[in-house]
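Reminder: ligand-aware prediction takes two inputs, not one.
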Amino acid sequence: MLGSRHDAEVVRGTYARTFARMQAILESYGGTVEKFIGDAVMAVFGVPVAHEDDALRALRAALELRADITTHNARSPMPLQVRVGVNTGEVVAGSGRGGQFLVTGQPVNIGARLQTAARPGEVLVGSLTRELTSASVRYAEPRWIEAKGAGSVAAFAVVDMLTEATALSTVPSAALVDRDAELRMLFDTYERVRVERRPYLVTIYGEAGVGKSRVAREFVNPLGPDRVRAGRCLPYGEGVTFAPLQEMLRADLGIVASDDATEATAKLTAIVRTALDEEDADVVSRGIAVLAGLATVPSVWPDLPAESVASELNFALRRFLEQRSESEPLILVLEDAHWAEPALLDVIEHLTEWARAPLLVVCLARPELVVRRPAWGGGKARTLAMTLDPLSADHTRRLVEALLPPARSARREEIVERSEGNPLYVEEFVRRVVEVDQPPTSVPATLQGLIAARVDSLEPGIKAMLQRASVSGRVVSTEALTAVGDDPREIESLLRGALRHGFITATDEPGPGGGREYRFNHMLTRDVVYASLPKSERAKLHDRFGRWLETVGARRGVEDPEVVGYHAEQACLFAREVGLDDAPALGSRAFLRLLAAATSARDRADYHGSRALFQRAAAIGETSDVDQVLLIQARGYAATSRLRLESSPDAVAQLERVLSDARRLGPSPVLANLLWWSAMYAMPADAVLAHARHLEAIKIARAVGEPATVAAALRASAALAAARGDLDEERGVLREARALLEPRADRSILARVLLGLANNATRRGDLDEARARIDEALPLARDLVGRILAQRAKTEYLRAIGDREGATASAEQALLAARELGSPSAVAGAASALGAVLRQRGQLEPSRAVLEDAFVVARGSAEKIVVAQLRCELARTLLALDDVQGARRCIEDGEIPSTDVGTSAAAKATLAQIFAAERLPEQADALFREAVALLEPTGLALDLAECRLEHAAFLAYPGR
Ligand SMILES: Nc1ncnc2c1ncn2[C@@H]1O[C@H](COP(=O)(O)OP(=O)(O)OP(=O)(O)O)[C@@H](O)[C@H]1O
Ligand SMILES: [Mg+2]
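Here is what comes back for the chain with adenosine-5'-triphosphate:
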């Protein structure tokens, strides 16, 4: 940046001085200079200690650097140019040689790129930096720059800083929700101050964002600006001890930013002289000049001993404010008092204790104030403290409703749940949803910074303890903490520390392993704390924690295999990610634990849970050294349970892949299971293949020797006979299955077999038998799939005996349960039955609605027969609604498999009715005859009777 026409020594000197000033500026904003490279400086903010406004600090520093260079250029014969790049993101921080520390990662590279892309005098920032500071800084439109490895990235040039009043927000604030009690208390206190003419100190405690500032604002607004002086404490520390008082006093004296020292002092003197007698006026104007930042202590009291300064200041402030509140009470609001310097708190305390005037001091503080100043306000007369709790769920919902545009209202409940009553979190989540329509799952960057800063301000011991606690989730017990490596002698005091800082609360319940239980006050806090743990630590802690849970569970006889499985899985995944030596061992362990959890979920008929767990087990097992037979078990059940829930072509393909691998490993229950599922899906297209697979499934089940597995294989195969219309054969197979089962041990499979027998009886027209089997099955069919099957069987039976209302009710139950299961084919089956009954009852529009809804869900299902049945029912309802074209389209739109006799016949009869409605009686008649001919040789008595009736009706009135 410098020309060679300058003397090398001058250049070096200028550089050295400039760098020194830059470093001082950067450090004054909490930045750390990482290195000087040539004529460039690199500084980081938020590492090693995060602040809630690191991005903004970096920008303020950048602007001050620029101003500094401008000043330098005005005076120096050697002008300099400056270009600044600022970027935000997750980096890896470590210490380099000689204690120098280093940050690396893509955000650093992009930051460097922004710097080189900046024009002279420009401050150019990346997207996340912009997002984090957009409330305070105005930016130009983005321009795009190329960054190696990151492609094209958006860059924003700083235009200027916004003042607080002009700050923009994409989410307007909502009308105040709740807080009546707190406001009433504030007004009451104000009233007492006014009447008693004595000071009161009120401290409002509450976690970040819970609404302290808002409540204070709502309180003071109706009183008017004349009565209120507000000042804010800053987290920067040094040199700004009295900054909040300065803010209050300058406002009180009417001093504005453009006033120079003479003008400001003149305003001060004028006010003080008119209000006070001469003796006091002198001391007060000196003291207030110091507190208002208009003069330094040595300049006003050159000879005053240091130990007397405080009492002079106290006196000055007290006298001054007593005077200023003589006619009417004055309210002083101290924002963010948890950052106040002790000296400032001393002044406030003195004031409220000694003043003889109507002064109401309201301090707003996060819980850590109590940690920094345990005795704050304590034991003094006329002091009050209140804590703002998070909003209730109802109030939170009201706030979300007020902020969320109607178009995004689908996200409402997620936001209510994630924000847990914290209005700031509500606003941030709404902002995220509005701006990028992202679900409120991850922690928004703005909150991340806020929370991380609080975490980093903790003592290292407490922070580390919270990190360990976060591994166990929201709740942790002292026992668990001991198990993951905390020293039992220290835990209590660390927990107390965290409690005082407002990070956790004690629950009243004992934890799983005994000991006391604590929970993070907010899930987001837990998430941020957890995210601050290095991955290798997470691996280690998840492992320890999972093992501990396992022993505790075993000891108490209550095991939670899913939670154990989860920790084992996380341990393995993190260990792999960072390449730890024990990753393979953790993989084998995770596989076994997940498989155990999946099996236990399957045993309690948790279809969704077991599907996911088998899948997770399989995913880890496939990349670990595990028993191949067990691996096939995981993969196999993952595939069959997926098929049950999805019935999609992809799921069928997955099943076929696992099936061929499973065959190679020889007979096993899972192989039998895979075979009958695959047979079921092969059936519509290839009955021969389906038959072969069913036989193979039965053979393997017998070889494995579990009666329940044999019975399940038999039951599945019975569907083949039913499809052919051979109901005697179907009954025989089902009876064989039934004979194998123990009523007590095999409830759910027995229920399915009995319901199969019931359907078989209904279709044969043996209604007494059907009723008996249903009654027998009902108490056994407890799980979701069992309930669906039971209600389906009941529907068919009730239809057959002519109880259409009963049939409607059962079909509705079945549909409800099918939707709960979420399986498209179950929905299609139940909806077909319901649609048919409703049509029979003349409720045509409801019938259509039910069928069409189901059709949307099920049309892509690989269970072709069920979909074909749904098509037929929908076509018939459309026909009844006189939508003949619609009916035809509906039937012709998809394939009707010929392997299921009942369905083929139904499709023919449906088409026949369409022809009849189209006044093509010959075609109609021919199709009716074909349908009857299909059914006649079978045992499908009920279907045949219905078909014949329809045909007869057609013959009686051919044109309808
Ligand atoms: N009861 C409420 N009804 C509607 N909006 C609220 C309510 N309480 C707070 N808010 C909004 O939530 C946001 C955060 O509130 P506020 O700034 O008062 O929190 P705080 O407790 O002062 O946080 P901090 O500790 O960070 O200062 C603000 O935009 C505020 O307007
Ligand atoms: Mg606040």
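Residues 393-441 form one domain. The radius of gyration is 38 Å. We will return to this case in the review session.
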